[in-house]
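Translate structure to sequence.
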């Protein structure tokens, strides 16, 4: 147990004080590559119903776009390869549109007509 010694000048820590104001760098979104904001959605690229275990950080709007445009079978076939998803014109158009938005930006997502 540490003790404070008045004759020795009080507490002495050998470790430098950690700067509590300094936040860790934001994690980039798996789909669009922008830094994530205050809300991070941990998304299963391969759906859990299809045996997916890995999770990736995403914006909520990016996850909603994937869910609206792909079935679980299509997401399973794409796996962890984001380039396969970005090859689809609606996803590429969305990523280009959202590129200059704020990390905490949110909007309603248009459903795919199936």
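Result:
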């Amino acid at each position: 147990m540490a003790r404070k010694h008045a004759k020795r000048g009080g507490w002495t820590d050998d470790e430098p004080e950690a700067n509590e104001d300094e936040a860790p760098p934001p994690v980039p979104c798996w789909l669009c590559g922008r830094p994530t904001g205050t809300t991070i959605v941990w998304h299963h690229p391969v759906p859990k119903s299809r045996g997916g275990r890995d999770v990736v950080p995403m914006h909520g709007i990016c996850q909603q776009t994937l869910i609206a445009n792909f079935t679980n079978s299509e997401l399973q076939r794409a796996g962890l390869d984001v380039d396969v998803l970005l090859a689809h014109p609606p996803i590429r158009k969305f990523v280009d549109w959202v590129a200059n938005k704020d990390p905490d930006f949110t909007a309603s997502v248009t459903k795919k007509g199936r």
